[in-house]
Design goal:
The complex is a heterodimer. By secondary structure, chain A is α/β, with parallel strands linked by helices. Chain A contains 8 helices and 15 strands. Classes of the chains: A alpha/beta, B mainly alpha. At the A-B interface, helix 1 of A face helix 1, helix 2 and helix 3 of B.
Amino acid sequence: MNCLIVDDNKIARITLRKMVSLDPSLVLVGECPDATDAYQKILQQPIDLIFLDVEMPGMSGIELVKSLGQHQPLIIFTTSKKEYAAEAFDLQVADYITKPVTPVRFLQAVEKAKASFKKKPTTASATASNEFIFIRDSNVVRRLKAKDILFLEAKGDYVQIFTEEKQYHIHATLKSVEEKLSADLFLRIHRSFIINVGKIDTLEGKTIIIHKHVIPVSDAYRSLLNNRMQIL
Amino acid sequence: MSTSYDFIDLSYIEQVSNGDKAYEKEVLELFVECMLTDLETVKVHFDAGDYHQLRKTLHYMLPNMSIVGLDLRLREELDALDHEQPNTARHIDHIDRICFLCTKARLEAIILLRSSF
Protein backbone atom coordinates (compact mmCIF):
# COMPACT_ATOMS: atom_id res chain seq x y z
CA MET A 1 0.00 0.00 0.00
CA ASN A 2 1.32 3.42 -0.95
CA CYS A 3 1.16 5.64 2.09
CA LEU A 4 1.68 9.29 2.92
CA ILE A 5 2.46 10.99 6.24
CA VAL A 6 0.90 14.41 6.82
CA ASP A 7 1.89 16.19 10.00
CA ASP A 8 3.21 19.66 10.72
CA ASN A 9 5.39 18.31 13.52
CA LYS A 10 8.76 17.00 12.34
CA ILE A 11 9.28 14.65 15.29
CA ALA A 12 5.86 13.13 14.65
CA ARG A 13 6.75 12.62 10.96
CA ILE A 14 10.06 10.95 11.80
CA THR A 15 8.39 8.72 14.36
CA LEU A 16 5.62 7.70 11.96
CA ARG A 17 8.24 7.04 9.28
CA LYS A 18 10.01 4.73 11.70
CA MET A 19 6.75 2.89 12.36
CA VAL A 20 5.90 2.59 8.66
CA SER A 21 9.16 0.67 8.28
CA LEU A 22 7.77 -1.96 10.67
CA ASP A 23 5.34 -3.22 8.04
CA PRO A 24 6.91 -4.28 4.73
CA SER A 25 3.58 -4.01 2.91
CA LEU A 26 3.64 -0.23 3.42
CA VAL A 27 5.50 1.88 0.87
CA LEU A 28 6.11 5.43 2.06
CA VAL A 29 5.73 7.69 -0.98
CA GLY A 30 5.96 11.04 0.78
CA GLU A 31 5.78 13.22 3.85
CA CYS A 32 3.97 16.55 3.96
CA PRO A 33 4.13 19.28 6.59
CA ASP A 34 0.67 20.61 5.74
CA ALA A 35 -2.64 19.61 4.23
CA THR A 36 -2.34 21.77 1.11
CA ASP A 37 0.90 20.06 0.14
CA ALA A 38 -0.77 16.71 0.82
CA TYR A 39 -3.76 17.60 -1.36
CA GLN A 40 -1.47 18.20 -4.33
CA LYS A 41 0.41 14.95 -3.75
CA ILE A 42 -2.83 12.98 -3.52
CA LEU A 43 -3.96 14.32 -6.89
CA GLN A 44 -0.58 13.65 -8.47
CA GLN A 45 0.07 10.05 -7.47
CA PRO A 46 -1.79 6.96 -6.30
CA ILE A 47 -1.97 6.92 -2.52
CA ASP A 48 -3.81 4.21 -0.63
CA LEU A 49 -3.34 5.27 2.97
CA ILE A 50 -2.66 8.56 4.78
CA PHE A 51 -1.45 8.99 8.33
CA LEU A 52 -3.03 12.36 8.94
CA ASP A 53 -2.70 14.86 11.76
CA VAL A 54 -5.85 16.83 12.59
CA GLU A 55 -4.69 20.23 13.83
CA MET A 56 -2.35 21.87 11.36
CA PRO A 57 -1.86 25.48 10.32
CA GLY A 58 -4.11 26.48 7.42
CA MET A 59 -6.24 23.55 6.38
CA SER A 60 -6.91 20.94 9.08
CA GLY A 61 -6.75 17.20 8.49
CA ILE A 62 -10.54 16.99 8.72
CA GLU A 63 -10.95 19.72 6.10
CA LEU A 64 -8.51 17.88 3.85
CA VAL A 65 -10.54 14.66 4.05
CA LYS A 66 -13.77 16.54 3.33
CA SER A 67 -12.20 18.14 0.27
CA LEU A 68 -11.02 14.86 -1.22
CA GLY A 69 -14.42 13.31 -1.91
CA GLN A 70 -13.98 10.31 -4.19
CA HIS A 71 -10.22 10.82 -4.17
CA GLN A 72 -10.18 9.92 -0.49
CA PRO A 73 -7.61 7.24 0.27
CA LEU A 74 -7.86 5.33 3.53
CA ILE A 75 -7.20 7.62 6.45
CA ILE A 76 -5.66 6.96 9.85
CA PHE A 77 -5.91 10.11 11.93
CA THR A 78 -3.02 10.67 14.33
CA THR A 79 -3.58 13.44 16.83
CA SER A 80 -2.79 14.62 20.32
CA LYS A 81 -6.46 15.26 21.07
CA LYS A 82 -9.33 12.84 21.48
CA GLU A 83 -12.02 15.44 20.93
CA TYR A 84 -12.05 15.10 17.15
CA ALA A 85 -12.71 11.35 17.21
CA ALA A 86 -16.48 11.53 16.65
CA GLU A 87 -16.17 13.89 13.69
CA ALA A 88 -13.30 11.83 12.29
CA PHE A 89 -15.26 8.59 12.37
CA ASP A 90 -18.17 10.35 10.64
CA LEU A 91 -15.75 10.71 7.74
CA GLN A 92 -15.44 6.92 7.63
CA VAL A 93 -11.74 6.85 8.36
CA ALA A 94 -9.95 3.57 8.99
CA ASP A 95 -8.82 4.49 12.48
CA TYR A 96 -8.08 7.31 14.88
CA ILE A 97 -5.02 7.08 17.09
CA THR A 98 -3.79 9.47 19.72
CA LYS A 99 -0.19 10.54 20.16
CA PRO A 100 2.18 9.35 21.38
CA VAL A 101 1.51 6.51 18.96
CA THR A 102 2.91 3.21 20.14
CA PRO A 103 4.17 0.66 17.60
CA VAL A 104 1.51 -1.84 18.74
CA ARG A 105 -1.33 0.65 18.29
CA PHE A 106 0.12 1.77 14.98
CA LEU A 107 0.18 -1.77 13.60
CA GLN A 108 -3.38 -2.39 14.82
CA ALA A 109 -4.53 0.66 12.89
CA VAL A 110 -2.65 -0.48 9.79
CA GLU A 111 -4.33 -3.89 9.97
CA LYS A 112 -7.73 -2.16 10.10
CA ALA A 113 -6.77 -0.08 7.08
CA LYS A 114 -5.64 -3.17 5.18
CA ALA A 115 -8.98 -4.86 5.87
CA SER A 116 -10.82 -1.78 4.51
CA PHE A 117 -8.44 -1.63 1.54
CA LYS A 118 -9.50 -5.09 0.41
CA LYS A 119 -13.17 -4.07 0.48
CA LYS A 120 -12.72 -0.68 -1.20
CA PRO A 121 -14.11 -0.29 -4.74
CA THR A 122 -11.69 0.88 -7.38
CA THR A 123 -11.55 4.59 -8.13
CA ALA A 124 -12.80 3.95 -11.67
CA SER A 125 -16.04 2.31 -10.56
CA ALA A 126 -16.60 4.89 -7.86
CA THR A 127 -16.27 7.70 -10.40
CA ALA A 128 -18.46 5.96 -12.95
CA SER A 129 -21.25 5.54 -10.44
CA ASN A 130 -21.22 9.27 -9.79
CA GLU A 131 -21.68 10.56 -13.31
CA PHE A 132 -25.27 11.25 -12.38
CA ILE A 133 -27.28 11.58 -9.20
CA PHE A 134 -30.91 10.85 -8.44
CA ILE A 135 -32.91 13.52 -6.65
CA ARG A 136 -36.46 13.68 -5.39
CA ASP A 137 -38.17 16.48 -7.33
CA SER A 138 -41.78 16.96 -6.16
CA ASN A 139 -43.36 13.55 -6.73
CA VAL A 140 -40.79 12.12 -9.11
CA VAL A 141 -37.29 10.84 -8.67
CA ARG A 142 -35.21 12.61 -11.28
CA ARG A 143 -31.83 11.72 -12.75
CA LEU A 144 -29.48 14.69 -12.97
CA LYS A 145 -26.29 14.53 -15.00
CA ALA A 146 -23.44 15.70 -12.77
CA LYS A 147 -21.90 17.65 -15.65
CA ASP A 148 -25.11 19.73 -15.94
CA ILE A 149 -24.95 20.94 -12.34
CA LEU A 150 -23.48 24.42 -11.94
CA PHE A 151 -23.31 24.53 -8.16
CA LEU A 152 -25.15 23.59 -4.98
CA GLU A 153 -26.11 25.81 -2.09
CA ALA A 154 -27.10 24.82 1.44
CA LYS A 155 -30.29 26.52 2.59
CA GLY A 156 -31.32 25.41 6.06
CA ASP A 157 -32.57 21.85 5.85
CA TYR A 158 -32.48 21.98 2.05
CA VAL A 159 -29.90 21.97 -0.70
CA GLN A 160 -30.60 24.01 -3.80
CA ILE A 161 -29.13 22.51 -6.96
CA PHE A 162 -28.53 24.96 -9.81
CA THR A 163 -28.40 23.88 -13.43
CA GLU A 164 -28.49 26.18 -16.46
CA GLU A 165 -32.18 25.49 -17.00
CA LYS A 166 -33.63 24.95 -13.60
CA GLN A 167 -33.15 24.95 -9.84
CA TYR A 168 -34.06 21.99 -7.66
CA HIS A 169 -34.62 21.90 -3.91
CA ILE A 170 -33.93 18.68 -2.11
CA HIS A 171 -34.33 17.89 1.56
CA ALA A 172 -30.73 17.01 2.50
CA THR A 173 -27.58 18.37 4.02
CA LEU A 174 -24.82 19.70 1.81
CA LYS A 175 -22.46 17.18 3.40
CA SER A 176 -24.63 14.20 2.46
CA VAL A 177 -24.90 15.44 -1.13
CA GLU A 178 -21.17 16.14 -1.26
CA GLU A 179 -20.46 12.50 -0.47
CA LYS A 180 -22.40 11.43 -3.55
CA LEU A 181 -20.69 13.84 -5.94
CA SER A 182 -17.51 13.09 -7.84
CA ALA A 183 -14.55 15.05 -6.53
CA ASP A 184 -13.27 15.05 -10.11
CA LEU A 185 -15.98 17.59 -10.95
CA PHE A 186 -17.05 19.21 -7.71
CA LEU A 187 -15.33 21.16 -4.98
CA ARG A 188 -16.57 22.73 -1.78
CA ILE A 189 -15.51 26.38 -1.69
CA HIS A 190 -17.58 27.59 1.24
CA ARG A 191 -19.52 26.16 4.19
CA SER A 192 -22.68 26.61 2.10
CA PHE A 193 -21.48 26.10 -1.47
CA ILE A 194 -20.16 23.28 -3.65
CA ILE A 195 -19.32 24.16 -7.22
CA ASN A 196 -18.73 22.33 -10.47
CA VAL A 197 -15.15 23.48 -11.10
CA GLY A 198 -15.55 23.19 -14.86
CA LYS A 199 -18.38 25.73 -14.82
CA ILE A 200 -16.43 28.63 -13.29
CA ASP A 201 -16.60 31.71 -15.51
CA THR A 202 -14.47 34.09 -13.43
CA LEU A 203 -12.73 34.31 -10.08
CA GLU A 204 -12.21 37.73 -8.55
CA GLY A 205 -11.07 38.26 -5.00
CA LYS A 206 -13.27 36.20 -2.73
CA THR A 207 -16.01 35.49 -5.24
CA ILE A 208 -16.47 33.36 -8.30
CA ILE A 209 -19.07 33.73 -10.98
CA ILE A 210 -20.83 30.77 -12.52
CA HIS A 211 -23.44 31.52 -15.13
CA LYS A 212 -24.10 34.99 -13.65
CA HIS A 213 -24.41 33.62 -10.10
CA VAL A 214 -22.02 35.23 -7.61
CA ILE A 215 -20.65 32.67 -5.15
CA PRO A 216 -18.42 33.41 -2.14
CA VAL A 217 -15.13 31.59 -1.58
CA SER A 218 -14.13 31.23 2.05
CA ASP A 219 -10.50 31.59 3.09
CA ALA A 220 -10.34 28.01 4.36
CA TYR A 221 -11.05 26.63 0.88
CA ARG A 222 -9.18 29.22 -1.17
CA SER A 223 -5.92 27.26 -1.55
CA LEU A 224 -7.85 24.14 -2.57
CA LEU A 225 -9.68 26.10 -5.22
CA ASN A 226 -6.44 27.59 -6.55
CA ASN A 227 -4.90 24.12 -6.72
CA ARG A 228 -7.86 22.72 -8.62
CA MET A 229 -8.04 25.60 -11.07
CA GLN A 230 -4.31 25.33 -11.90
CA ILE A 231 -4.27 29.00 -12.85
CA LEU A 232 -1.63 29.82 -15.49
CA MET B 1 20.48 4.70 27.12
CA SER B 2 18.57 2.93 29.85
CA THR B 3 19.89 5.17 32.66
CA SER B 4 17.10 7.06 34.42
CA TYR B 5 16.96 10.84 34.26
CA ASP B 6 15.24 13.46 36.37
CA PHE B 7 13.16 15.11 33.67
CA ILE B 8 13.16 12.96 30.57
CA ASP B 9 11.77 9.48 30.24
CA LEU B 10 13.29 7.60 27.33
CA SER B 11 11.02 4.58 27.41
CA TYR B 12 8.87 5.75 24.49
CA ILE B 13 11.85 6.62 22.27
CA GLU B 14 13.41 3.24 23.05
CA GLN B 15 10.15 1.44 22.36
CA VAL B 16 9.91 3.05 18.92
CA SER B 17 13.60 2.87 18.05
CA ASN B 18 13.94 -0.83 18.85
CA GLY B 19 17.69 -0.23 19.18
CA ASP B 20 18.04 2.15 16.23
CA LYS B 21 20.51 4.67 17.69
CA ALA B 22 20.32 6.91 14.61
CA TYR B 23 16.58 7.40 15.20
CA GLU B 24 17.13 8.09 18.92
CA LYS B 25 19.79 10.68 18.15
CA GLU B 26 17.76 12.36 15.42
CA VAL B 27 14.67 12.62 17.60
CA LEU B 28 16.56 13.93 20.62
CA GLU B 29 18.37 16.51 18.51
CA LEU B 30 15.06 17.67 17.10
CA PHE B 31 13.56 17.77 20.57
CA VAL B 32 16.38 20.05 21.73
CA GLU B 33 16.08 22.27 18.66
CA CYS B 34 12.28 22.49 18.57
CA MET B 35 11.86 22.97 22.30
CA LEU B 36 14.10 26.02 22.23
CA THR B 37 12.03 27.65 19.49
CA ASP B 38 8.72 26.58 21.02
CA LEU B 39 9.58 27.92 24.47
CA GLU B 40 10.59 31.23 22.93
CA THR B 41 7.24 31.33 21.11
CA VAL B 42 5.38 30.58 24.35
CA LYS B 43 7.22 33.46 26.02
CA VAL B 44 6.33 35.87 23.20
CA HIS B 45 2.62 34.96 23.40
CA PHE B 46 2.66 35.04 27.19
CA ASP B 47 4.28 38.49 27.26
CA ALA B 48 1.76 39.73 24.70
CA GLY B 49 -1.11 38.28 26.73
CA ASP B 50 -2.22 36.27 23.70
CA TYR B 51 -3.54 33.18 25.47
CA HIS B 52 -5.25 31.82 22.38
CA GLN B 53 -1.96 31.61 20.47
CA LEU B 54 -0.21 30.41 23.61
CA ARG B 55 -2.59 27.46 23.87
CA LYS B 56 -2.12 26.70 20.19
CA THR B 57 1.65 26.67 20.64
CA LEU B 58 1.38 24.35 23.63
CA HIS B 59 -0.81 22.02 21.60
CA TYR B 60 1.78 22.05 18.84
CA MET B 61 4.45 21.18 21.44
CA LEU B 62 2.54 18.17 22.75
CA PRO B 63 4.06 15.54 20.42
CA ASN B 64 7.50 16.91 21.28
CA MET B 65 6.75 16.71 24.99
CA SER B 66 5.34 13.22 24.71
CA ILE B 67 8.45 11.88 23.01
CA VAL B 68 10.28 12.22 26.35
CA GLY B 69 7.30 11.48 28.59
CA LEU B 70 6.62 15.08 29.58
CA ASP B 71 2.98 14.81 28.55
CA LEU B 72 2.40 12.37 31.41
CA ARG B 73 4.22 14.51 33.98
CA LEU B 74 2.37 17.60 32.82
CA ARG B 75 -1.02 16.03 32.20
CA GLU B 76 -2.77 18.00 34.94
CA GLU B 77 -1.34 21.32 33.77
CA LEU B 78 -2.00 20.64 30.09
CA ASP B 79 -5.56 19.50 30.70
CA ALA B 80 -6.24 22.52 32.90
CA LEU B 81 -5.10 24.97 30.22
CA ASP B 82 -7.97 23.98 27.97
CA HIS B 83 -10.58 24.73 30.60
CA GLU B 84 -9.35 27.33 33.05
CA GLN B 85 -9.70 31.06 32.81
CA PRO B 86 -6.60 32.63 31.23
CA ASN B 87 -4.46 35.16 33.05
CA THR B 88 -5.32 33.86 36.51
CA ALA B 89 -2.65 32.98 39.06
CA ARG B 90 -3.42 29.29 38.65
CA HIS B 91 -3.21 29.52 34.84
CA ILE B 92 0.13 31.32 35.02
CA ASP B 93 1.43 28.73 37.52
CA HIS B 94 0.56 25.98 35.08
CA ILE B 95 2.32 27.69 32.20
CA ASP B 96 5.35 28.32 34.43
CA ARG B 97 5.56 24.68 35.40
CA ILE B 98 5.20 23.50 31.79
CA CYS B 99 7.98 25.85 30.69
CA PHE B 100 10.16 24.91 33.66
CA LEU B 101 9.94 21.17 33.03
CA CYS B 102 10.38 21.57 29.27
CA THR B 103 13.49 23.70 29.83
CA LYS B 104 14.97 21.19 32.27
CA ALA B 105 14.15 18.29 29.96
CA ARG B 106 15.81 20.07 27.08
CA LEU B 107 18.99 20.65 29.07
CA GLU B 108 19.01 17.03 30.16
CA ALA B 109 18.61 15.92 26.53
CA ILE B 110 21.61 18.06 25.55
CA ILE B 111 23.72 16.38 28.23
CA LEU B 112 22.51 12.97 27.09
CA LEU B 113 23.36 13.70 23.46
CA ARG B 114 26.88 14.78 24.45
CA SER B 115 27.49 11.76 26.62
CA SER B 116 25.81 8.91 24.74
CA PHE B 117 26.09 9.59 21.01
